[in-house]
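Regression check, nicotinamide-adenine-dinucleotide case 250:
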Amino acid sequence: METQPLTGRRAIVTGAASGIGAAVARRLADLGAKIVVADRDEQPARTVADQVGGEVWVVDLADTAALADLRLEADILVNNAGIQHVAPVEEFPPERFALILRLMVEAPFLLTRAALPHMYRQGWGRVVHISSAHGLRASKYKAAYVTAKHGIEGLSKVVALEGADHGVTSNCVNPGFVRTPLVERQLADQARAHGLPEDEVLEKVILEESVIKRLLEPAEVAGAVAYLCSDEASFVTGTSLVIDGGWTAH
Ligand SMILES: NC(=O)c1ccc[n+]([C@@H]2O[C@H](COP(=O)([O-])OP(=O)(O)OC[C@H]3O[C@@H](n4cnc5c(N)ncnc54)[C@H](O)[C@@H]3O)[C@@H](O)[C@H]2O)c1
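Current build output:
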């Protein structure tokens, strides 16, 4: 049996210095892909790249003007970099809203735009967007994040339609809450916004909608990305692979 089916493939994973991105980089490298760790944090990016025998692309993806004329040689693009901000709409800082949309909608558009010509030339490509249960459902106090994730769902579907004749699939992965620094950083903000002690946030806010009462692990998300990059998933496009412990079953 082929154990490294992604041998010869080059995968750019954004936000791969931490959390889900790092787990995706490791999984795709295990499957034989050459990894480009694209992140603004150089040192942790280098650590992950060294672990997977990949390279580092130090880039601030919120600086979208610098991405406008980019051309990328990638067979797999995983749009993963993201941030969160928790505040009610009337107090939500406009510059924070704009930053989240630049990083989590505009940058994925520009990277996909830059990667498609190479994928089309070779007749094979995989674009995977790390969306969220928040790409399908809303929560209070996350206006920018929910807007951005709903936006990436639309971009993914358009790329699926345009890429179909070129062997390129585009899909979202929609995790519930994953055990990463992004969630750990939210605990204090969520406690403030919901008026709860920090130790009650996990049970009463974060896991409230999940039927399975635990955080998801980054490696489980990476498994879904690996599936979408496989040849078995060549007919899977324009869809959203939901891994949310039953949250959206409500
Ligand atoms: N953690 C969760 O519960 C969860 C759930 C659903 C979806 N997601 C999504 O998964 C993705 C990864 O989240 P995570 O939890 O692993 O977060 P994380 O904070 O652990 O990692 C995010 C990475 O993105 C990088 N990054 C942030 N801003 C950047 C910028 N301007 N330019 C380049 N890189 C930048 C960071 O340096 C970091 O390495 C995000 O899109 C997030 O919305 C996370």
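Comparison notes: The chain has one domain: 10-179+217-240. DSSP finds seven helices and seven strands in the chain. No diff flagged against the previous build.
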